[in-house]
Structures are given as C-alpha cells and as structure tokens.
C-alpha cells in the first residue's frame, strides 16, 4: 500500500461535500493538504479542524490566469504536489435542452471541464518531471448515462471521463497514475447549488433512499491512491445500493416502495 504520510495533496472544491470529506480522509492518513475553493472562510474553518498541516488557497478554477498564478505562488515546501483531487464542480438547472439557460451551461462547462483542465495543466508538468504523482478526477455516473434534463451536466461529466482517460494515456512513460472516481447520488450541497438555493426541492432529491455520503466517495478516492505503485485504477463507479441507474431506484420507507421513481422530481 502507498503510504500517504507527509505527502502533499491538493483538493479542489474542498469547502464542501466530497472535497471536504477527501481533505479529512487524507489528513487522517498523515498527508499535508492544499485546500482550494472560492469560499475562504469555509477553507479556514476546515484547515483549523483538520489537525494536519494545510494551506488554504482561495481560487476560482474557472480563471485560468488565477489558477496559474496560484500554483506558481505555492511556497517551496508545497510545490511538489503528490496527489491532485480534481473535485471542484457543480450542476446548474435541470431543464430540457431546448429550454436551458446559457448562463447555467457556461458555468458548468467553465467549472467542470475548463476548470479541471486549467488546474491539471498547471499541476501535471511537475508530476511528470518528478516521475511521480496521482490525479483523481471526480466524474459521475452522469458521465456514463444521460438522464432526462441532465443534458449539459451529463456532457461535462462525459468530458471529465474522456479527459481522465486521456491524461492516463498521455502520461505514458511516467509513473504518474490517473483515476476517475464516478459516484451516483451523494448527499452534499450539490442539489442546493443545482436548484439555485431552493432548499425544499434539493431536500426531495435525497428523501427516497439512503444516498452515498461524501465520506463514502472519499473512501473510494483513498482506495485508488493507496494501491501499490504498479496498480492504476482507471475508473471506479460507486452507487447507493438502492440506486440502479440515474432514474431507477428502490425507494424505502414510503408506501409505494418498489415503484420506479424519478429522484429529480
Ligand atoms: P458541493 O456543492 O457540496 O461541493 C462543490 C465544491 O466545488 C465546493 O467546495 C465548491 O466550493 C467547489 N467549486 C464549485 N465551483 C468552483 C469554482 N469555480 N472554483 C473553485 N471551486 C469551486 O457538491 P459535491 O461535493 O457533491 O460535488 C463535488 C464534485 O462531485 C462535483 O464535481 C460534482 O459534479 C461531483 N459529483 C457529485 C455528486 C452528487 O450527487 N453530489 C455525484 C457525482 C459527482 P466554493 O463554492 O467555495 O468555490
Ligand atoms: C451527480 C449525480 O445523478 O445527480 O453527478 O447526476 S447525478
């Protein structure tokens, strides 16, 4: 098993949900954390709570110049990033394509695809030249399966899948590993963001069956990263047990258990 003691781990989107859980999981393994997101206060609270050496970086991954500047400005002791968790991402809206909002589309594409590219382009050359490192891209089952009204979000996650596979291929000749971790439904701030702050609608997404928790995803990330150096898990898909596809699930605790339900309604 790869030992993570004192390794330098950068997590994007560390201020909430899966990213925060990843930071906590790596910290428990003795890693040092570079915590990236826009909400500085959240990052600082997390850093204070981690009990591990950590650096907070307030950054919008959509801003390529800012990403390059932030990576270039890392203190010397933090420059050799061993693990990059490309997690920052979001969905906006759930509308038929022909009624979609271009502002939502641009935000998803700029964050989930271009943001992941900017961060990877800034960090990967160092890993390649040191001949070591691991990139974990948080994709989604939405990258495997298009669901009704998921259109652009699903397209961005299909792009994450393709980019992850592309990275792994292009890093041939180096010992850098690349893994895509693709979860089904995870209870986080994801739906609150998707529905532009509508708490009632967001809560309904998670009411029918136990969803994954951010810590479950962090556990999968940790599994990929701690395999022996000659093992590269390229893709790990994890589902809530009661979720079978994006829209087929087995609801529990309500009268019509067993009926196929659309969790997004
Ligand atoms: P959350 O909304 O809880 O967390 C999203 C994180 O991304 C936040 O820390 C947010 O930080 C950060 N983020 C968003 N935009 C930017 C930006 N422009 N620059 C920097 N950071 C940004 O959702 P999740 O934890 O669920 O989502 C994390 C990832 O997991 C996403 O890529 C999502 O697509 C994916 N995913 C989620 C699933 C789910 O069901 N929840 C299932 C499958 C995949 P801040 O706002 O402070 O910048
Ligand atoms: C998030 C999971 O099913 O809401 O990527 O698209 S889903």
Spell out the blueprint of helices and strands.
Layout: E1 8-12, H1 17-28, E2 32-37, H2 40-50, E3 54-58, H3 64-72, E4 83-86, H4 102-130, E5 134-138, H5 151-170, E6 177-183, H6 190-194, H7 199-205, H8 214-225, E7 235-238
Helix pairs in contact: 1-8, 3-4, 4-5
The protein binds NADPH dihydro-nicotinamide-adenine-dinucleotide phosphate and 2-hydroxyethylsulfonic acid.
List keywords for this structure.
265 residues, alpha/beta, Rossmann fold, 8 helices, globular, binds 2-hydroxyethylsulfonic acid
Quick description:
The chain is of the alpha/beta class.
Distance between the termini: 43 Å
Q: What percent of the residues sit in helical stretches (DSSP H or I)? A: 25-40%
* CATH architectural designation: 3-Layer(aba) Sandwich
> What hetero molecules are in the model?
NADPH dihydro-nicotinamide-adenine-dinucleotide phosphate, 2-hydroxyethylsulfonic acid
- Under CATH, the topology can be stated as Rossmann fold
Radius of gyration: 18 Å
Q: How many H/I helical runs?
A: 8
> CATH first level: which class?
Alpha Beta
In total, how many domains does the architecture comprise? 1
Number of strands: 7
Uncertain parts: 255-261
Q: Which sequence of SSEs, written as H and E, runs from N to C?
A: EHEHEHEHEHEHHHE
The chain-level mean pLDDT equals 95
Q: Kindly name the structural category.
A: alpha/beta
Physical arrangement of strands within the biggest beta sheet = 3-2-1-4-5-6-7
Sheet-strand content, in percent, reads 5-15%
């Amino acid at each position: 098993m790869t030992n993570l003691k004192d390794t330098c781990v950068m997590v994007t989107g560390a201020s909430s949900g899966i990213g925060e859980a990843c930071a906590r999981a790596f910290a428990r393994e003795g890693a040092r954390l570079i915590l990236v997101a826009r909400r500085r206060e959240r990052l600082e609270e997390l850093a204070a709570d981690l009990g591990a050496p950590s650096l907070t970086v307030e950054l919008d991954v959509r801003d390529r110049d800012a990403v390059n500047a932030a990576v270039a400005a890392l203190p010397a002791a933090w420059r050799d990033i061993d693990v990059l968790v490309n997690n920052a991402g979001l969905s906006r809206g759930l509308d038929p394509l022909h009624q979609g909002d271009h502002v939502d589309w641009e935000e998803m594409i700029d964050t989930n695809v271009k943001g992941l590219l900017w961060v990877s382009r800034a960090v990967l050359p160092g890993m390649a030249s040191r001949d070591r490192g691991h990139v974990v891209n948080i994709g989604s089952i939405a990258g495997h399966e298009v669901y009704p009204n998921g259109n652009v979000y699903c397209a961005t996650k299909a792009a994450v899948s393709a980019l992850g596979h592309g990275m792994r291929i292009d890093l041939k000749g180096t010992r850098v590993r690349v893994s895509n971790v693709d979860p089904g439904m995870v209870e986080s701030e994801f739906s609150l963001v998707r529905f532009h702050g509508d708490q009632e609608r967001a809560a309904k997404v998670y009411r029918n069956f136990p969803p994954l928790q951010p810590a479950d995803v962090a556990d999968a990330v940790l599994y990929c990263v701690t395999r022996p150096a000659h093992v590269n898990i390229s893709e790990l898909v994890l589902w809530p047990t009661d979720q079978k596809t994006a829209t087929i699930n087995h609801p529990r605790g309500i009268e019509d258990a067993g009926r196929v339900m659309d969790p997004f309604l």
